[in-house]
Specification:
Number of domains of chain A: 1
Number of domains of chain B: 2
Distance between the termini of chain A: 62 Å
Structural class of chain A: alpha/beta
CATH topology of chain A: Pectate Lyase C-like
Order of helices and strands of chain B: EHEEHHEEHEEHEEEHHHEEEEEE
Radius of gyration of chain B: 18 Å
CATH topology of the largest domain in chain B: Glutamine Phosphoribosylpyrophosphate, subunit 1, domain 1
Oligomer: heterodimer
Number of helices of chain B: 8
CATH class of chain A: Mainly Beta
CATH class of the largest domain in chain B: Alpha Beta
Number of strands of chain B: 16
CATH superfamily of chain A: Glutamate synthase, alpha subunit, C-terminal domain
Strand content of chain B: 25-35%
Strand order of the largest sheet of chain A: 1-2-3-4-5-6-7-8-9-11-10
Largest interface: A-B, 22 and 18 residues
Strand order of the largest sheet of chain B: 7-2-8-1-14-13-15
Amino acid sequence: MTTTLDMTATDLRAVNTTLQAAARAQANEDYEIINPRGAHAMACGLDGPLTVTIKGSTGYYCAGMNKEATVTVEGSAGPGVAENMMSGIVTIEGDASQYAGATGHGGLLNIKGNASSRCGISMKGIDIVVHGNIGHMSAFMAQKGNLVVLGDAGDALGDSLYEARLFVRGSVKSLGADCIEKEMRPEHLEILAKLLEQAGADAKPEEFKRYGSARKLYNFNIDHADEY
Amino acid sequence: MCGIVGLFLKKDDLRPQLGDMLTDMLITMTDRGPDSAGIAIYGPETEGMVKITVQSDSPETAFAHLDAALCAAIDAPVTIKVIDTHAVLTVPEASEAAAIAWLEETGLRIMGSGASMEIYKEVGLPKDVAARFGLREMGGSHGIGHTRMATESAVTTMGAHPFSTADDQCLVHNGSLSNHNQMRRTLARKGVFTRSENDTEVGAAYISSRIAEGATLGEALEGTIKDLDGFFTFVTGTRNGFGVVRDPIACKPAVMAETEDYVAFASEYRAFADLPGIEAARVWEPEPATVYFWER
């Protein structure tokens, strides 16, 4: 049974309180939210299994800090969607604004449209699949996890990258400092195939290029002392 | 933070509702800018005539017999429409410069002028500002609005947006410019002067000066990317339409929606929630360092 919450009748705080209690109850119920009207911080802090479908577009920080829950936005999401997500699945049927999936530790963020700038900034283990394009400075200082882009990437992809893996099918406008193209080995094709399948993406792993850290910014280089 | 909104109607039958639609958008952006609000609305024109919007803190005395006094000073017919602290004076095109000079001399603040544009802006919550001016009842072809959270200059009427620095041109801004003092001096050397200490007014003056030098609106907006330093999402209004440009870093939010009836701009999607047909609109985020404009 699906419970419907109407945001023209129920305020944001009441909606989130209801969802958070349902998540804590560990009953994996289905919730549907209608008339979201671009509200901020919708379905954030869900700390347990729960299925939430938001019928429309959302504002800032939707599904932030998500743990175990499955959240679907049937519209576009504003800045910071699924920020600091721990686990679970967040799906955006439309576009995502800037810093989608920032600092995420785990789970899958599946963006069916485009993501704008700073997608996956400082990601720490999350998997992000973007079916469209991503904007500039994506995966800046990304530490762990996988960013898969079926379209093109903007400027300075993977600047100051640590150990996150970046897979891009289309063009990359420019690579950031210390980000380089790397060999696609069988284990990478395997990871990619699994993620594409999970995200329901119509693409073959062989069509992608892999980018990663050149690992030259990890340590202070004494030969560069004069440059500081 | 600040909130900006814009609405450009593609069909004439929505024109009577422009003010109502823009007011809802403006009030929704109150969280982003509660200290002052303003709107530029492009309404009906009268052939050969120009509208000058002025503001006074003591409208009862300042606007009493103002039309007659201005008429005598410039020796031309003048009509006046007083709305709260603002008055819109309609004068023949040929007398515009003389009228503005005289009005400024009497101590009135010039909000803007043009064949089509009227500007209303004041300190206060957007809902209160909208109510004072009766923005909901205003009709027009397009309009832009701003809710301000001040950073670069004081919370005053003159510091509120939109800023107009040429006939029928105005600008609203979310962000802050870091080279505005230098640009203000550069513009002053060319004879382009601003009326406030505000950074956005310098941005507006830059765009106006480029257009005065022969640039198109598109070229002038392109120029902001190269010549203005800082953070900005700009929406600029002209007699025929409006334009949007974001700086290359693009940390200031922006979202657009387009249907067969209108093109809308806002800092956040929330502002679109009451627009007719928004569920079926094409909604997208304008790209960084990319100029968009719509003209009729």
